[in-house]
Amino acid sequence: MFYYPIDREVEMRLLELKDAPKLYRLIQENRGHLKTWLGWVDSVNSLQDTKHYIKVVQSKMIEGHGFQSSIRVKDELAGLVGFHNFSSQNRSVAIGYWLGKKYQKKGLAIRSTKALVEYAFMEWDIHRIEIRCAAENFSSQQIPEKLGFQKEGVLREVEWLYDHYVDHQVYSMIKREWEEKNR
What we know:
alpha+beta, Aminopeptidase, 36% strand, protein N-terminal-serine acetyltransferase activity, Acyl_CoA_acyltransferase, Ribosomal_N-acetyltransferase, GNAT family N-acetyltransferase, GNAT_dom
């Protein structure tokens, strides 16, 4: 099981079925906020939907396609961070993250993402990490920018979000760049 302590109060833990009630509650409490940036929110309308999502995430992990980790503050589920779009041939992966509104602006997303970046480069020997953020989601863009990711450009109208297309900012980090920045 993946367990990664970030500090005395914050940890990342692999998402498990027993997390479904807490995860569903977090989504429910933040539904309006999350829908602003995430297209999957309307597909999670029950505890059963949440359990199904966790099972899908677990099967992707077993197949080697990435994983989702819970971000926990004093054992309270605060959000998720994880790997997706894993390519073993290219040794590349994308990182995604989200937090409940009351957990934002506390440094949790940047600390969790930094820990996952370190884990990817050191444990998985990843060569390239990508983070995509909605072009208008300035809070989310601060994460890769503060971590020193290179802004590569904009993917125009790349995602349909309920009733409109959104552009994504694309950021990347190469392993050698990370090592140089963190010597």
